[in-house]
Specification:
Elements (H helix, E strand, L loop, with lengths): L6 E6 L9 H18 L3 E4 L13 H11 L4 E8 L5 H14 L4 E6 L6 H7 L9 H13 L23 E6 L2 H10 L3 E4 H4 L4 H11 L10 E10 L2 H19 L9 H4 L5 H13 L1 E4 H15 L3 E5 L5 H14 L3
Parallel strand pairs: 1-2, 1-9, 2-3, 3-4, 4-5, 5-6, 6-7, 7-8, 7-9
Enzyme class: oxidoreductase
Pfam family, one: Bac_luciferase
EC number: 1.-.-.-
Length: 335
């Protein structure tokens, strides 16, 4: 029997673009979500970052509500809510409301990372030990979003997260290390690995941990997705020219220099010897090219990692070039 077709989804972070207003990035995300639904993508996820000079998507639950009002079919999700900052009960209420707006279409992806620097993280939650309670938070959140009862000795016993309905948000565990993989396996949750953060490092090990330790819980069988950075253009030359913006961001980040995405013509600078070695490795691993080339790379990666769904993130300075990349990939994979 042939393998099932590869499913593609989208992760958009509302990236800041040099010379463009930051609020424009939020509206670009809304427009992209509508187009991605038209092109047949499985789901559209948005991220949570705080105080970032590069990413201005700070409130995924608010952005998801706007996307829900503008779409009809595509699943909408957070990738993710940084749970240690918040009360699980409040997050459950927010996502129950989202599920009322888009019944059966809401993904609640959660992560343990701060999505910010240490000082900003403390502004969100002054308790520096908050992340240690993450496993318990996940259990509470799952009970409240699904309508299950908490134990009799729990302070939340008998208190529901409203509104109740016939459907519920789908909880996902997000991660870029073995920690999230093992927690997702222990709780029987779907798991998404952030391949784009690590440039693939640790992906095989995390997915192996998830599958080998999986216990039935929310799911009866493991369900894994991998979030990758990819860029397609009408020509290979154009794709690599557009890639210069992300390349510069990655190189600068390694030396602690953060800022908005630069247009390709301004992104080129002289690199040191160590930076040149990093760039060579970055380009070798990059999923960049024509739609046919990127399709082959995506399918090879999915086959190697044994996943049926890839979540694609694409940064370009020009929003039209970003949308064109998703359009080309959708057509190439016949979504």
């Amino acid at each position: 029997m042939s393998n099932p077709p590869l499913r593609l989804s989208v992760l958009d972070q509302s990236v800041a673009r040099a010379g463009r207003p930051q609020d424009e990035s939020i509206r670009d995300t809304l427009a992209l979500a509508q187009r991605c639904e038209e092109w047949g993508y499985e789901r559209f996820w948005v991220s949570e970052h705080h105080g970032s000079a590069t990413i201005v998507g700070s409130a995924p639950e608010v952005l998801m509500a706007a996307i829900a009002a503008r779409t009809r079919r595509i699943r909408i999700g957070s990738a993710g809510v940084m749970l240690p900052h918040y009360s699980p009960y409040k997050v459950a209420e927010q996502f129950r409301v989202l599920d009322a707006l888009a019944p059966g279409r809401i993904d609640l992806g959660v992560g343990r990372a701060p999505g910010s620097d240490h000082r900003t993280s403390l502004l969100l939650n002054p308790d520096p030990r908050a992340a240690a309670g993450f496993p318990q938070q996940v259990l509470e959140l799952q009970a409240w979003v699904s309508g299950a009862e908490l134990p009799a000795d729990h302070p939340g016993h008998g208190i529901p997260a409203l509104p109740q309905s016939a459907t519920a948000p789908q909880l996902w565990m997000l991660g870029s290390s073995g920690y999230g993989a093992q927690l997702a396996a222990h709780y029987g949750l779907p798991y998404a690995f952030a391949y784009f953060i690590t440039e693939g490092e640790g992906a095989d090990q995390a997915l192996d941990l998830y599958r080998s330790n999986f216990k039935p819980g929310l799911l009866q069988q493991p369900q894994a997705a991998v979030c990758v950075w990819a860029l397609a253009a009408d020509t290979e030359e154009q794709a690599w020219r557009l890639f210069a913006s992300r390349e510069r961001t990655r190189v600068d980040r390694n030396i602690g220099r953060l800022g908005p995405l630069l247009p390709p013509q301004q992104a080129v600078r002289e690199y040191s010897g160590s930076e040149q070695a990093y760039v060579a490795q970055l380009r070798e691993r990059a999923l960049v090219g024509t739609a046919a080339q990127v399709k082959d790379k995506l399918e090879a990666l999915a086959q190697r990692l044994q996943v049926q769904e890839l979540v694609v993130i694409t940064w370009t300075w020009d929003p039209a070039a970003q949308a064109r990349s998703y359009e080309l990939l959708a057509a190439q994979l016949r979504l």
